[in-house]
Amino acid sequence: MDLSGKVAIVTGASAGIGRAYALALAGAGATVVAAARRLGGGEDEAPDANTLTTLVKAGARLPGRIYVQACDMELEVDVVRLIDQAAANFGRIDVLVNNAAALWKFDTLNITGEAWDRLMTTNVRGPYVAIRQAAPHMMRQRSGSIINITAGVGDLTPKSNYPGFLAYGVSKAALNRLSYFMAAELKAYGIAVNCLSPGVVLSESALAAYPEAAKAGTHKPCTPELLGPALLYLARQTAATMTAQILHTDEFGKSWP
User: If both were cysteines, with which of 41, 146, 211, 224 could 23 make a disulfide (CB 3.0 to 4.6 Å apart)?
Assistant: First the structure.
């Protein structure tokens, strides 16, 4: 799936799913702006550390180039700077992957207001601000693909129980609704807005939330080869081909496209 000449932004790209997405996009030839809270690169940094600096090294031989920028999704000024600088540096924005998220587990009746607000700020307001800033550039191009990374816990009727993930589930349900609204708003400009649920993968954040995953051996490895094809397909979509969909990576090649 050639994306040469396209400019993509991936949030939460230093580790886990976001890192896999950034490498997949660069592997398809895209210029990728990878964002995370910390750049890394200290003198004592291990070669296999999950940082933006090691991401650049990992993608050095790929067809596309990976550029990095520090961005805390809790800070609106950081999100605005990320999008605006990408547009200024590369002249366009073709793909926005809202991947960064707080995956926090709480006792359902013991969530503080501060914790609730921080999670919603990162998981809902951050993606909204990113879309708000990127959409005008895509509207001028009359093309673009926005991919919001969601989760099964955000489904209206989730297939299984997720004890401890009330706040996270509410945030992903809100992200799904945000995606539907934005798909309708941007359809006339040719911009696709879709949600992609990667499922439970063996990322550090997932393992922290689901420590039993490593023992079970049933969850997906967090690699661009496995997670990338579904994302790359959505990156190539327009409002005329596929928009306003909530899709699952595990169903790619089966029930969709």
Answer: 224
Contacts by residues 56-59 (CB-CB < 8 Å, ≥ 24 positions apart) = 58/19, 58/23, 59/22, 59/23, 59/26, 59/27, 59/32
**Hey, what are 26's tokens?**
């660069």
- Partner residues linked to 103 by β-bridges: none
Q: Quote the strand ranges of 51-119, DSSP E.
A: 66-70, 95-98
pLDDT tens by residue, 24-61: 999 999 999 999 998 998 878 888 899 999 999 999 99
Q: Is residue 182 part of a domain?
A: yes
In a domain, 117, yes or no: yes
147 domain residue, yes or no: yes
Catalytic site residues? Answer: 168
Counting Cα atoms < 13 Å in the Cβ hemisphere of 45 gives: 16
Q: Is residue 2 part of a domain?
A: no
Instruction: Read off the CATH number of the domain in which 234 is found.
Output: 3.40.50.720
Contacting residues for 54 by C-beta, under 8 A, at least 6 apart: 40, 45, 47, 48
